[in-house]
Amino acid sequence: MSSYEIIKEAHSGWRWIVLVMSVAAVVNFGIATTTKRNFKPLDNRISLFYMIAADIQLLLGLILYFFISPVVKSYFDNVALTLDNEAHFFAIEHPIFMLLSIICVHLGRATMKNASNSKKKFNRGFMWFLFSLVLLLAGMPW
After folding, report:
1. Against a cut of 0.85, is the pTM above it?
2. Phi/psi of residue 38, each to 5°?
3. How many of the other CB atoms lie within 10 Å of CB of 72?
């Protein structure tokens, strides 16, 4: 098995962990927003684990994108000649959606941590994590 296949399979498999963590964060923060409960260490851990999972996925994706993906390489070698929708998706659309999703995760963590009370923490976290989930679903290859 080549290094490309190993990293690609790791990236492909890890997406499910990111997706589960994203749904867990959105559901947790959504329920907490509506029930008006206090912010707990578990809430912080859920958002932290979501961010860590997303960052690991980003690292795997960057390795693929910049160093070993033949799909991306062939796309940029022949941009004017490439009519392959799959190559365009993986070279342009997928990275943009995923980067925006990860930015939302980090913004959610940062704004949540800087909030003065539990209500603001949950509202900000829920909003940013929901944006992140929508972008994740839009840019994920199904």
Report:
1. yes
2. -80, 150
3. 19
Contact assessment for residue 72 and residue 32, using Cβ atoms and an 8 Å cutoff? no
Q: What is the DSSP letter of 92?
A: I
The confidence score (pLDDT) of residue 53 equals 98
- The domain in which residue 103 lies consists of 3-139
At 7, list the tokens: 């990293």
Rounded Cα gap, residues 137 and 132, in angstroms: 9
- Angstrom distance (rounded) from CA 98 to CA 91: 12
How many distinct structural domains can be found in the chain?
A: 1
Task: Specify burial of residue 17 (Cβ count, 10 A radius: 0-12, 13-18, 19+).
Answer: middle
Q: State how far the Cα of 31 lies from the Cα of 14, in Å rounded to an integer.
A: 26
Cβ 61 vs Cβ 10: under 8 Å: no
Q: How far apart, in whole angstroms, are the C-alpha atoms of residue 121 and residue 115? A: 5
Q: Token pair 């578990």 is at which residue?
A: 42
